[in-house]
Design brief:
Chain lengths: 137, 142
């Protein structure tokens, strides 16, 4: 009788432990999921910011070199390597808006990073002044 | 002699479960703190990029205003300092950095000015510790 009671106690404890462990695992897995999502988003934003910054620097130089510069779209895969449109996960759109001034051209350049689902991930703007002939150098 | 039976007694499984749960909670806490640190660091880099671009935009607009002032012979924009034929202005990037732009105004020729410097400069000054502390200063101290 005593042995049976002890065995029953053990099983009740085991069941309670399984329930407790399941609850803890659910909470921990959910927290891990949230952490992973946050880390992925942070990495994406960081790379998007750096890519935008580098592209805008190039775009500024393009404005100086070519007065007829036009907007372009660049495609990147999940490793942020340039790729074709079919394999692209990220799309960077560069748009140039010229503002004519009395002494030259003020280019407003915009870089927008979009994900595959067309949600905007990051956005950055730059300006480049290009004096007309006789202005600055 | 009484022999003791080996087996899971009452409370052993609870103890093991508690230990594993504690380990899992510790792991998730570490993971979360690491992500937080990474997030803060990334935000600072992103902010730095954005701050620089904003300062650069203001600098480019100031260049356009200077060019117009030089062409029309009107007053230069606020914040410009003139030293001989050199013209300079500063745009703050963040708390400790500013964008320094220096131009040389050309008297005649094809261009009105030439950019001689366009750089970020740190306004943070190092305060050297002049004391030697416990460092060995030479000689025989024995």
């Amino acid at each position: 009788m005593k042995s049976r009671m002890r065995s029953m106690g053990f099983y009740i404890e085991l069941i309670l432990n399984v329930l407790f462990f399941t609850a803890i695992t659910a909470v921990v897995l959910s927290a891990f999921g949230k952490t992973y999502k946050a880390a992925t988003e942070t990495g994406e934003n960081n790379t998007a910011s750096n890519v935008c910054f580098a592209l805008l620097q190039e775009a500024k130089a393009d404005c100086v070199a070519d007065a007829n510069v036009e907007g372009t779209t660049l495609f990147y895969n999940e490793k942020w390597e340039p790729c074709t449109q079919q394999d692209a996960l990220y799309t960077v759109s560069l748009t140039y808006t010229p503002e004519e001034t009395e002494t030259g051209m003020l280019w407003r350049i915009s870089a927008i990073v979009e994900k595959e689902d067309e949600t905007t991930l990051y956005h950055m703007q730059a300006t480049q002044y290009v004096p007309s002939k006789g202005g600055g150098a | 002699m009484k022999t003791r039976k080996f087996g899971f007694g009452t409370g052993t499984t609870s103890l093991i479960t508690l230990l594993v749960a504690l380990l899992l909670v510790m792991l998730v806490s570490l993971s979360m703190s690491a992500t937080k640190v990474q997030n803060n660091f990334t935000n600072r880099i992103t902010m730095q990029n954005e701050d620089y671009m904003l300062a650069d935009t203001v600098a480019q607009e100031t260049l356009a205003e200077i060019d117009l002032a030089l062409k029309n012979g009107t007053t230069l924009p606020e914040g410009c300092s003139v030293e001989g034929d050199a013209l300079s202005f500063q745009i703050p990037v963040n708390e400790h950095t500013y964008l320094q732009v220096t131009l040389q105004v050309l008297p005649s020729g094809n261009n009105r000015y030439v950019i001689t410097a366009y750089k970020t400069v740190s306004s943070f000054t190092w305060q050297p510790d002049e004391t030697t502390g416990n460092l060995w200063e030479g000689g025989n101290n024995a």
